[in-house]
Amino acid sequence: MKKTFSILLCLLTFTVFAQIDRSQQPQPGPAPVIQLGEPERFTLNNGLTVLIVENNKLPRAAVSLSLDNSPIAEGELAGVSAMTAALLGKGSATIDKDSFNEEVDFMGATINFGSQSASASSLSRYFGRVLELMADAALHPNFTQEEFDKEKDILLDGIKSGEKSVTTAARRVENLLAYGKDHPYGEYVSKESVERVKLADVDAFYKRYFLPNNAYLVIVGDVDAGDLKKQVKKLFGKWKKKNLSTDPIPDVTNVSTTQIDFVNMPNAVQTEVTVQNTVSLRKKDADYFPLLIANGILGGGGEARLFLNLREDKGYTYGSYSSMGNNKYTASRFRASASVRNAVVDSAVVELLYEIDRMKKEVVSDDELNRAKAKYVGSFVRAVEQPSTVAAYALEIETEGLPDDFYTTYLESVNNVTKEDIQRVAQKYFLVDQARIVVTGKASEVLDNLEKVQFNESDISVSYYDKYGNVIDRPASFELPDGVSAQSILADYIDAIGGQDAINAIRSLEVSYNANFMGNELEAILINTAEEQKQIVKMGGNVLATVIVNASGAKVEQMGNSMDLPPEMAADMQAVIGIIPELKMMENESITVSGIEEIDGQSAYALEMKGQSTTTTTYYAVESGLKLKQTTVTEMMGQTQTQDSNYNDYKRFGSLLIPSSTSVPLGPQSVDATLGYVKINGEAVDTE
Fold it and tell me: pTM for this structure?
């Protein structure tokens, strides 16, 4: 679809964020005494532990069922847990899916399921029935081939939509490199692994792991504990306990020296940078609270060092943060990250390393320490006002082996952290000398400078990976063949689709594309003349919005209202008015050839056009000259929105080649669209 559609999607998805108040926070006073109360606790004969917290302030109740199993490696069937989660809740052995959903909707309740969990909430007067429905669906699932096939297609569509996501690729490779491909946290769900999953695999996974042995049922709200105890025994007492077999978890080790792991994503318009190492930390460890505060000072928010350096001072990114995990079963990760402009990747790596290293070498200031403590104290005090918090904390005391007074003394533990504690744990856990610096971006724009980065006056070795974590050779440098320019590439495209004379003979071109979006029929109609572009977006036959661009400006018409687009955005859209945008692009001498990339197995020239609010990169096949893809990056209201459009299966309509299928993102989803009709000069034209 055309650039106008990308602009419209940006307008519909951008939101305005309030400015962060960075005023001085007061010095923390003595830790207040927190009274959490004690939940009603009992254990069934099958091992299910039940925690009930009565709170009668509101006539509502909620329940959660969680299985405290160790991490599970799915291997060649990666995706079986996701399929199990998707199929749970499709009714039960005693009630069909539609009847189940209708009853839940009638009560205004919600019931959700995971592969090893379930939850529900409702008004208290319906809670008994809601608990019954949740238990029935969780313990007596209705796994059918029909629902399996539907959910499998949805999962495969989700994988496809994330194929070109730089963030998705970055997180996938970060996990794989940190843990290894055989570790539950290092494996990833792929198209191939999902296609191997059968309905029988889902049933086997459920029977092996969905057991009461390590299960916890937590109920919170306007309930009577005595009555509930009887109902819980009735609903869950027959849930059979079995021997729970789990596979050993591989050991995890860090690299011996800091290295850069570069992941090549030729379509990246921004680069994901993460500095990470694995750590061994449990919530009950003495270092937990010092690390909580240390991470807060380093990268816990807008007042932390990473944010103040990389955003406020340097302007490299919209935000930079860090995190410190904890896990009782296996290693977790310390990571510091930022999504940065391609031009500053090497500098961003240097600053991330500098700030992590500074935590180890320098004692933090009193002001930083007090700010971090005040933030966690405030968050904790607000959290304990929620009834669900009492139950969540009680559950963590059970599952994490915490002291009974862990949360009643939480604020005291926070306030007891010293500056010396901060430096000590930073030196122990922030392994800047044994870190993986995972950089996911466009090699042709970032790699040369990245390979020159030094840390503590020493070179850093660089390894190269594809987006699935496979080792590759260093991506080749970009060399443009003799005689090739932006104008020659555009001219080849015009010739490929029909030629200048054929296009000049067209006074108007109207093209319709159809797609299915969240169960609704979507139609996008594009009408181009030499002086105006119009895009009409319909959902279920109703017009959602119309975008009109001409010499006087650009506007959006929606639900009877008309809104002029900002002048800088209008100017970018006016720059491509015409029967095809390439006619106007031929006149733009600022367009550059930014590289040669591989798009769906074809080598393609990348042409970059920078506007006032958008940067558009269009990819034209080296061999055929046809347009394969367009990426539009729009900056608006302090945010960056990226939209990809793909063009496939060109067919001839009259004198013109037009893509008969395309895919465009709508928010977090990718939508495949097919050609509906073509009108040239007002007359319908069939494909030849």
Answer: 0.80
